[in-house]
WW domain-containing protein (Nonomuraea muscovyensis), 340 residues
Amino acid sequence: MHLELLDPCRDPQPSGWEAFRQDEGLSAIWAYDVIAASSQGSWARPLLGVFHDGSRLAGVVGAVYLGLRWPKSARVPRPRREPLLLDVRLPGHSDGPTWHFAGDVTPERRRDLFREFERAARRHLGRGTAGVLYRMVTEPELPQVARRGGVVRDSPGSMYLPVRWSSVEGWLGSLSKNRRKSLRRSVKHVAEIPGLTVREGTARGDLDPAELAELNRRHTERLAARLDPRAPLPAAYFRELLRRDDVRVISYHEGERLLAFAIVYEHPATPVSGAWAALRPEEGGRQDLYFDVYPRIVRRAVETGAERVLFGRGRGEIKQSMGMEHVPLKFVVVPGWAMG
């Protein structure tokens, strides 16, 4: 097995990447151009570990590395010139691990490949690498990255909705009376807002990627956590998504003003609910848009025969009240001396 370290913002797509993505049933969030665009101009620099087994691509580990910076600083980290943290996650991903291996790569082999990736990353970033942080680790995958000297803690879990119904009404009927009534009330209220336009579709050339990026920045900035710094998703990322026919965008406009939007990565079995951003009511936004978008996503999943929809992390109690199931996740901190 041969390891190749790549910066997707600089290096061309490796041989076999798209075939690997298609064969493994990965959504557009794993498209190389999407990953590259997600880090354009960012202070969190991307680093991909790509494993080749002969002529085929057998696995990918996606990460970013972070340097010393003041809050809201855009300074780019400097490998070999300052302490750096290797953060194993990718911008825009919130449903689970940012690595994927072919099915015939055993868990024992994956553990060895993670160590190989860590050694290569440390050589690339410098001996001052402070450590590696694995986020969104599922419990079955924990033995592959946990070790002596590492610290394991609970991480906010991910949520998914099994699609067991033949209609949205069937889904609503499975919920508690209070949640069912509140969702119907929200949908009715949104439908009655004068001048509100809701559009859904792929290849949304009618939308402005810079406007989506700014609304997303303002929305995620409110949710930022000190121990979970997230670089803003750039306009280039949304530009890349808006041109694709496998990425669905639900947008809410009042006149010409964008109030909210949702990104959904289409997939025949497992669509992924991505970025959601909205203006607050005091900024001119509208209440109930957040709850209006869920029936739209569920309706599309039912119509296309999906098996489940991934809804990411955050707002777990609300999502559970809508019939979603919880996937426990861990994060693992490995100090520099224990890497590799």
